[in-house]
Amino acid sequence: MRFNGLQSRSGSFWGITGPPGAPTHLSPEEWAMVQKNVLVQCDEPLDGVADGILEDPNLCQYRPEALVCSKGQTKNCLTGPQIETVRKVFGPLYGNNGTYIYPRIPPGADQGFGFAIGEQPFPYSTEWFQYVIWNDTKWDPNTIGPNDYQKASEVNPFNVETWEGDLSKFRKRGSKIIHWHGLEDGLISSDNSMEYYNHVSATMGLSNTELDEFYRYFRVSGCGHCSGGIGANRIGNNRANLGGKEAKNNVLLALVKWVEEGQAPETITGVRYVNGATTGKVEVERRHCRYPYRNVWDRKGNYKNPDSWKCELPK
Q1: Where are stretches of biased composition, namely Polar residues (predicted)?
Q2: CB 87 within 8 A of CB 64
Q3: Is 73 helix (H, G, I), strand (E, B) or coil?
Q4: 256-290 pLDDT, tens digit each
């Protein structure tokens, strides 16, 4: 979804950070410092559990200014231009005349986007603009900007934008969608999935309760791009990411049960095995909520126990 925007967003990082040595550039060590500070501000203070996971990044209004260098300080801090870099990376991308291009990288997902914040332009985006959008191998990724984003939107090869909000035909034939996204996905912003769900809701004029009939979106905390991460993210989306062989803990079986038996999933249960193993003893189990519900810890029980959490609508 929004593939043009994704490539524009990924390519824009280089224009924001600049090359190593630029006043706007952050080293890997400095990004690690930012990641730790995100957790200081938005992990335990917001969800009550110091587990290195933002259960709901929507609650996090991260302030990188907490790391600004004081007078005379040169270590373990960020300069003004670097603070601005962090703000832009964690902010949405806009094009000409304020056109919205792509959502932010949510706080917490920054642990997985080192590939895009590096010492050279992101190659996928470079080749996308060179060979697909501009058809010019001499296009320079150092010059990427709003005109490039606009051109990508205009060209939209093979309708790759895929932002159709009217799913009426899909709904009419009785089809079902289980849409899920890892909240630590550093490649594709999980905010994009949330915005698409809301786009379908607005386009079709359906409330989330009405959408539940055929389309349910689940946000999986502590999960990277399709898998990985430190949370209870084994949900059975593929053979290598099994968490169980029942509909309640296997997203593919949940879809089958919904289609064939008419029983829609209220939650998707994920697990994390001890030491992050692919099988064995379960260390953490969590029932991931369907949007717009969010997981709330009761602040009494063991946070590793799914019964200590409850899906609640935002207040």
Answers
A1: 1-11
A2: yes
A3: coil
A4: 999 999 999 999 999 999 999 999 999 999 999 99
Tokens representing 162 are 């895929």
Whether 240 contacts 228, CB under 8 Å: no
Q: In Å, how far are 99, 177, 306 from 303, measured between CA atoms?
A: 42, 30, 7
Phi, psi of 308 (to 5 degrees): -85, 0
pLDDT for position 38: 97
- Single-letter amino acid, residue 123: P
Tell whether 112 and 205 lie within a shared domain.
no
The pTM (predicted TM-score) of the whole model is 0.94
For the CA atoms of 208, 209, 213, 215, what is the dihedral angle to 10 degrees?
20
What sign does the CA torsion over 263, 267, 272, 273 have? negative
**pLDDT at 30 (0 to 100):** 94
Tokens of 231: 């949370």
Chain segment 69-112, per-residue pLDDT in tens: 999 999 999 999 999 999 999 999 999 999 999 999 999 997 77
Q: How does 57-87 read in b/e, with b if 16+ C-beta sit within 10 Å?
A: bbebebebeebeeeeeeeeeebbeebbebbe
Which among 132, 157, 182 is the end of a domain? 157
Q: Are residues 148 and 281 in the same domain?
A: no
Number of domains in the chain: 2
Q: For residue range 7-40, what is the model confidence (pLDDT) as tens digits? A: 999 999 999 999 999 999 999 899 999 999 999 9
Q: Are strands 309-312 and 294-297 parallel, antiparallel or unpaired?
A: antiparallel
pLDDT at residue 117 tops 80:
no
Do 242 and 307 lie in a common domain? Answer: yes
